[in-house]
Amino acid sequence: KSPNLLLPEEIWSRINCSLMGTRIYYYSIVDSTNTEAKKLALSGAPSGSLVVAEGQTLGKGRMGREWSSPVGAGISASLILRPDITPPEAPRITLLTAVAVAEAIREKVHIEAMIKWPNDILIQGKKVCGILTEMSAEPDTVNYIIVGIGINVNNEEFPEKLKPIATSIKIAGGRVVSRAELLAAILERMEYYYQSGFGSGFGKLLERWRELCCNLGKPVKIIGRKESFNGTALGVDSDGAL
Ligand code: BTN
User: Fold this and answer.
1) Mind spelling out the 3-state secondary structure of the chain?
2) Were both Cys, which of 2, 89, 155, 233 would link to 73 (CB 3.0–4.6 Å)?
3) Phi/psi at 51 (5° precision)
4) If you measure from the C-alpha of residue 235 to the centroid of ligand 1, how many angstroms do you get, rounded to a whole number?
5) Residue 237, burial from CB neighbour count under 10 angstroms (0-12, 13-18, 19+)
6) Minimal CA–CA distance to 46: which of 24, 27, 15?
7) What is the pLDDT of residue 46?
8) 83: CA distance to ligand 1 center in Å?
9) pLDDT of residue 1
10) Which atom of ligand 1 is nearest to the CA of 63?
11) What Å distances lie between residue 216 and 54, 101, 166, 219, 220, CA to CA?
């Protein structure tokens, strides 16, 4: 029986990728895998490098929020990518990641994971995964993109304020899941969509994203940094904008 850890060997033995995760930086605990990935990207880490940690002390969420990552419970992982795309195309990476995560959960745990625009993954209406994409770019070129993936996998409970909105795969599925196996399935899918998903393949990826999205056609409240408003989510355009 192998330990439920995210050690590089546990991941490599389950993937057949030529890019994603070919180099892995493993930490028992780190402040934030995104912050660490940024440092590594600046010092030249190649595209496809993966930073993974058993837990984070300062996990970052979108819009300056915190992301809770207790040691050994979830997946905290950040990929360094250096795609040959323009900055406006960068949101495609987030859409691609959301599809890869939702599909991997569906395949490995047989639970109906859905995407909530732009990039949350929900199970039974509660958040199980968040994606934080950060980019360094010039006006017409992308230097690197960090794709941070946080998944509540074997968490048994959540802080009081998160209880109404968060869940884990274990809570929803009733069994402990191998984190390395799930991460490996995500990396394989990300590689597939990354190799085929830009250019002409993007239409197909967007189609899949729409199938997995739970917001479309529904009333939504848009909460921005400066303003909020109510509306109906009609669709996403080819850049992934709502
Ligand atoms: C969100 O939904 O607000 C995004 C959460 C993203 C969390 C992940 S965990 C791995 C990576 N490192 C971080 O500090 N954040 C992302």
Assistant:
1) CCCCCCCHHHHHCCCCCCCCCCCEEEEEEECCHHHHHHHHHHCCCCCCCEEEEEEECCCECHHHCECCCCCCCCEEEEEEECCCCCHHHCHHHHHHHHHHHHHHHHHHHCCCCEEECCCEEEECCEEEEEEEEEEEECCCCEEEEEEEEEECCCCCCCCHHHCCCECCHHHHHCCCCCHHHHHHHHHHHHHHHHHHCCHHHHHHHHHHHHHHECCCCCEEEEECCCCEEEEECCCCCCCCCC
2) 155
3) -110, 125
4) 25
5) exposed
6) 24
7) 98
8) 21
9) 60
10) 3
11) 35, 19, 21, 8, 9
Distance from the CA of 94 to the center of ligand 1, in angstroms? 12
Longest dimension (CA), the chain: 51
| pLDDT(2) > 80 | no
Residue 239: pLDDT above 80? Answer: no
| Alpha carbon of 134 to ligand 1 centroid (Å) | 10
In tens, the pLDDT along 187-223 reads 999 999 999 877 778 889 999 999 999 989 999 998 8
Using pLDDT thresholds of 50, 70 and 90, give the confidence band for residue 3.
confident
The CA dihedral of 66, 69, 74, 79, to the nearest 10 degrees, is 60
Is pLDDT of 225 > 90? no
Q: Which pTM does this prediction carry? A: 0.95
* CB-CB neighbours of 46 under 10 Å: 13
Q: Whose Cα sits closest to atom 3 in ligand 1?
A: 61
